[in-house]
Amino acid sequence: MDQLSEEVRQESPWTMMFADDIVICSESREQVEENLERWRFALERRGMKVSRSKTEYMCVNEREGSGTVRLQCEEVKKVQEFKYLGSTVQSNGECGKEVKKRVQAGWNGWRKVSGVLCDRKISARIKGKVYRTVVRPAMLYGLETVSLRKRQESELEVAELKMLRFSLGVTRLDRIRNEYIRGTAHVGRLGDKVREARLRWIGHVQRRETEISLGQRENEKRRKCCHSWTQISTVGFHGRRVDESVMLLMPNPDMTSCCDLCLPWTLLTWIKLIKLVSYLGYVLAHG
């Protein structure tokens, strides 16, 4: 596929490919139609066919809200959301559908192991370990770059606590605090785990190879990055600022670049620092 599309393929994020799925991004409707026609011509003259029924487009610019996109005089279906590589993208930039899908994925995982989690003969510690291994990863999948609001983070935590209460045989009428439920099952707050995942993602981005299409770096012994923490929070988290607790990792106030923070340390050290930030954030939040 790479060889077939070499003459029409652009750099990410303007063109993204996974197997036979192709995402084409452009700044205007005319450019979309032009690029779509170029792709159609390049593929069909080599014996491949572009499915008209499966081809869809989504507009994220209100000024481009009117009109349609056509492929060989055939109107392309317009959608308000679509799923790409397991994540749901919405035209309004929200992530409510993705959060609901993550909650549903968590419940699906919980039902698969409910025979173990609801067994009264199994200790709470083992149940918590099974939950952390099977259920929680399904809920956290892909949330590193999702701009979660407080309300959406609460939805995830409410669903998690319902699962834990069902697993431990506890109801709201028992008047047992959420902190005690988490402590009994040895399960931390889901919001803290989301922040840990974001920090791991930052470290991964900073350690990536130059060839990766996430961005380009200069070839130097110590690669430099011009992104400040504010820029990283805007670009990486879709407008959400990185938690202020991240700044606790800064050895001195002159280090304002994420590369100044990430590059001197190995992956193992970075993971340990992530755990430290999560713990300090919990202490600061609970006094």
Question: Can you walk through the features of this model?
Answer:
- It holds the Pfam family RVT_1.
- Residues 1-89 form the Reverse transcriptase domain.
- It is a single chain.
- The chain has 287 residues and is mostly helical.
- The chain is built from ten helices and eight strands.
- It has a two-stranded antiparallel sheet. A two-stranded parallel ribbon has the order 3-6.
- A hairpin with a 2-residue loop joins strand 7 and strand 8.
- Helix 5 crosses helix 6 (178-185).
- It is elongated.
- The model is unreliable at 215-260 (pLDDT under 50).
Topology:
Blueprint: E1 15-18, E2 21-24, H1 29-44, E3 56-57, E4 70-71, E5 74-75, E6 77-78, E7 81-84, E8 87-90, H2 96-112, H3 114-117, H4 124-140, H5 150-168, H6 178-185, H7 190-207, H8 229-236, H9 258-262, H10 267-285
Helix pairs in contact: 2-4, 2-5, 4-5, 5-6, 7-10
Please outline what is shown here.
Helix content is 46%, strand content 8%. The chain contains ten helices and eight strands.
Shape: elongated
Q: Give the N-to-C terminal Cα separation.
A: 55 Å
Mean of all residue-level pLDDT scores:
74
Percentage beta strand: 5-15%
The beta-strand count equals 8
Alpha-beta content class = mainly alpha
The secondary-structure element order is EEHEEEEEEHHHHHHHHH
Counted by DSSP, the helix tally is: 10
Task: Write out the strand line-up for the largest beta sheet, numbering strands in chain order.
Answer: 1-2
Provide the low-confidence segments as ranges.
Answer: 215-260
